[in-house]
Write a structure and sequence with these properties.
The protein is of the alpha/beta class. The chain has helices spanning 15-25, 47-57, 73-80, 92-108, 128-136, 147-168; strands at residues 3-8, 30-36, 64-69, 84-89, 113-118. The protein has one domain (3-124): 3-Layer(aba) Sandwich (Rossmann fold). It has six helices and five strands; from the N terminus they run E-H-E-H-E-H-E-H-E-H-H. The structure holds adenosine-5'-diphosphate.
């Protein structure tokens, strides 16, 4: 049985991530989407919120599960008894970072293999960070994130703005 882990921050999950999840769910028996819960890395959404977003969007995929993890990815893979790690690649610029991570993980556990799945052309320029920036200024993120995530983004920034104004007044 081929079980794979797709790790990431997913802050928030984008249509680019979901495209990778759907495509990989088609060729592995089981896919665990692993949401990194790193308290020292600031994120817009909590790990629980990020897990919920992905669960909602992958409910139609019976072989996909979503969990949060902290600590080393290789430890999480061992716990899940998964030997395959999936990472997405958008452009050459992703490559160096991803390659270094794959090498580091292989050094930590030689039995864990990383494979790279290329982004679909439509999502090459979609990233969680650019989506947050666009949404923060009220720009349109339609087609880049699912409807529910879009609404949660606007809600988050609306609350933040209200808080900032609250402080100023
Ligand atoms: P991380 O902080 O671990 O890079 P991300 O949530 O940004 O987490 O990304 C998780 C994985 O998904 C990474 O391998 C990243 O390269 C990939 N990825 C991000 N956006 C896209 C996209 N639009 N298309 C394909 N892969 C993507």
């Amino acid at each position: 049985m081929l079980k794979a882990v797709y790790p990431g921050s997913f802050d928030p999950v984008t249509n680019g991530h979901l495209d990778i999840i759907e495509r990989c769910a088609g060729f592995v028996d089981e896919l665990v989407v692993a949401v990194l819960d790193n308290p020292s890395k600031s994120s817009l959404f909590t790990a629980d919120e990020r897990v919920e977003h992905i669960k909602k969007e992958t409910a139609h995929l019976p072989n996909v599960s979503v969990r949060s993890f902290h600590g080393l990815l290789v430890d999480f893979c061992r716990l899940e008894k998964a030997r395959l790690v999936i990472r997405g690649l958008r452009a050459v610029t992703d490559f160096e970072y991803e390659f270094k991570m794959a090498l580091a993980n292989r050094k930590l556990d030689k039995d864990i293999e990383t494979i790279f799945v290329s982004s679909s052309a439509n999502y090459m320029f979609v990233s969680s960070s650019s989506i947050k920036e666009i949404a923060m200024f009220g720009g349109c993120v339609e087609d880049m994130v699912p409807e529910n995530v879009k609404n949660c983004l606007y809600e988050k920034f609306k609350n933040r703005e209200e808080n900032i104004h609250g402080f100023n007044n």
